[in-house]
Inverse folding.
């Protein structure tokens, strides 16, 4: 079905582009993974690009959803709102070398698109400037750029766009053709690509993203008008956008914009890592680093500058992207612990991922033999470090969801794989994650894992489900018991209102304390403890045997004791359990079963 074209680059165009780019990367993911030979032939570039874009889409959709739910407000965010959300989502979800660079490219675009916070849209010249800024910022983020990679493709796209006349559609089409030409030339710039007979995987992904940009403004994907316009993985199958022939294998043609080197570029470490003279045929030889380390980092500019220097000395493939206090750090090293310690010295690292090349997600600094699959496991999304510990003690594999940073479906799939079980019970613990969890479950099933999704809407429902989990039972019986326990648990949370809005309990002001029962605002108050007590009374008025309280870091110290006393004195035969949730977003989670 043809896409309704956008005339200008406004918030809706950002949303459309991100969605189309995700679809394009989804279709090309396996193809891109298959041609991933540089710097390490670990076959995940397509997946990393997809997960990065999926995180950007989630952030943009959240911004649109917030505006649509706000009574009396405009029904669409500004261009600046959407562009910043796109960049932030990509930053916090960036995976691998190419995904991290894509995030920085989108951040560069957003800096131009959001320069005037109230501007409703930009036109062709604005898009040209945004593409230039994106390519330049991406190149600056890489410690030692190498040509023949996604950096070359991005620069060529910006160079070609700079010569385009007309509106956004003309600029997008020029960028796409320039990117395609540079992609076709990558085997002549990197010997590893020429030996394998493939184009650069990261560049191939960027071409897909730019193809989605063309579709956003023309209503048709490049090549939809006839044969001979697709961009394929194999060098001898890459056809020109105008359908006039192919580029022969190992043509050595230079990319557009003058970025071609005809060889190994700088011979240093670039977008996708070390030069192949040091890495062997596929860039994964015995001298290459053993680990990929990725983490988000809260730190200032000066601390990050020192961190770059230290990490550059520890390893290669160093890419540090971000700004305004939040960064995504990616590096290949032999000493993963030292890379993490460097982040601790610079600021607060979190979402730390350590992957041993060839062994998948390791989270360790030593090899371990393959282990047998267990029969059954539970995978749960949890909103805070405290609950993550509680769930882990109960035997669950956890995915941490920090406030404003919901996990993507790819993260849930990876958690299911990490559980290493034949059967998995998946607990999303958030109504908004139900579709994400369903997509993850479907993906895991294609890999031969039996997955049951229990639609838990709160972590307290997940606790109730875990309490009756019995791995020795038949799978269906265990799922029924856990589903029944979760469904019998009413859930509530106490939060601080972020803005004035209409609710089912009336109008609230920013800073008010809200008590939500089963997702709807039921109480508006000024005091946390008083509001929590009112919520608890409403819930227990319908009966109950057990109250579960999960305290956030910002909850008053005395609130647990106050509520426990209230339950003990007012409700006979009702027990209370109290847990510390950490940075969970809510001041308090309440469960009654």
């Amino acid at each position: 079905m043809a896409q309704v074209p956008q005339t200008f680059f406004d918030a809706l165009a950002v949303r459309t582009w991100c969605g189309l780019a995700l679809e394009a990367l989804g279709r090309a993911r396996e193809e891109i993974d298959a041609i991933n030979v540089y710097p390490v032939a670990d076959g995940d570039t397509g997946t990393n690009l997809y997960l990065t874009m999926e995180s950007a889409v989630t952030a943009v959709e959240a911004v649109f959803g917030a505006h649509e739910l706000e009574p009396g407000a405009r029904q669409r965010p500004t261009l600046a709102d959407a562009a910043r959300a796109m960049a932030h989502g990509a930053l916090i979800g960036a995976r691998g070398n190419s995904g991290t660079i894509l995030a920085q490219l989108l951040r560069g675009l957003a800096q131009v698109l959001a320069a005037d916070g109230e501007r409703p849209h930009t036109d062709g010249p604005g898009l040209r400037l945004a593409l230039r800024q994106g390519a330049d910022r991406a190149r600056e983020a890489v410690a030692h750029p190498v040509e023949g990679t996604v950096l070359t493709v991005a620069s060529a796209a910006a160079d070609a766009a700079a010569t385009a006349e007309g509106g956004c559609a003309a600029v997008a089409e020029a960028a796409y053709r320039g990117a395609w030409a540079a992609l076709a030339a990558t085997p002549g710039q990197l010997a590893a690509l020429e030996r394998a007979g493939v184009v650069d995987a990261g560049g191939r992904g960027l071409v897909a993203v730019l193809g989605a940009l063309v579709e956003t403004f023309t209503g048709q994907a490049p090549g939809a008008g006839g044969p001979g316009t697709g961009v394929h993985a194999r060098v001898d199958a890459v056809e020109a956008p105008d359908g006039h022939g192919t580029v022969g294998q190992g043509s050595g043609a230079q990319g557009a914009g003058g970025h071609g080197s005809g060889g190994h570029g700088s011979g240093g470490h670039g977008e996708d890592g070390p030069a192949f003279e040091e890495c062997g045929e596929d860039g994964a030889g015995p001298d290459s680093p053993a680990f990929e380390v990725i983490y988000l980092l809260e730190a200032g500019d000066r601390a990050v500058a020192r961190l770059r220097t230290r990490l550059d000395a520890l390893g290669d493939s160093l890419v540090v992207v971000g700004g305004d206090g939040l960064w995504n750090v990616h590096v290949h090293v032999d000493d993963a612990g030292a890379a993490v310690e460097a982040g601790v010295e610079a600021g607060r690292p979190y979402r730390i991922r350590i992957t041993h090349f060839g062994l998948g997600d390791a989270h360790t600094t030593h090899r371990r033999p393959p282990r047998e699959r267990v029969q059954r496991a539970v995978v749960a999304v949890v909103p805070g470090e405290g609950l993550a510990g509680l769930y882990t003690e109960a035997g669950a594999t956890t995915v941490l969801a920090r406030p404003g940073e919901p996990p993507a479906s790819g993260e849930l799939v990876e958690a299911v794989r990490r559980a290493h079980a034949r059967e998995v019970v998946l607990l999303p613990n958030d109504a908004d994650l139900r579709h994400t969890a369903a997509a993850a479950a479907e993906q895991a099933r294609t890999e031969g894992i039996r997955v049951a999704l229990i639609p838990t809407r709160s972590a307290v429902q997940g606790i109730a489900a875990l309490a009756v989990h019995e791995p020795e039972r038949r799978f269906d019986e265990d799922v029924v018991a856990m589903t029944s326990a979760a469904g019998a648990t009413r859930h509530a949370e106490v939060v601080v209102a972020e803005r004035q809005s209409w609710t089912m309990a009336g109008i609230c002001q920013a800073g008010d304390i809200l008590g939500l029962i089963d997702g709807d605002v039921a109480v508006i108050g000024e005091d946390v403890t008083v509001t929590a007590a009112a919520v608890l009374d409403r819930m227990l008025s319908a009966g109950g045997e057990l109250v579960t309280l999960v305290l956030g870091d910002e909850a008053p110290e005395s609130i647990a004791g106050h509520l426990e006393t209230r339950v003990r004195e007012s409700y006979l035969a009702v027990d209370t359990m109290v847990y510390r949730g950490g940075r969970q977003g809510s001041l308090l989670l309440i469960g009654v079963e």
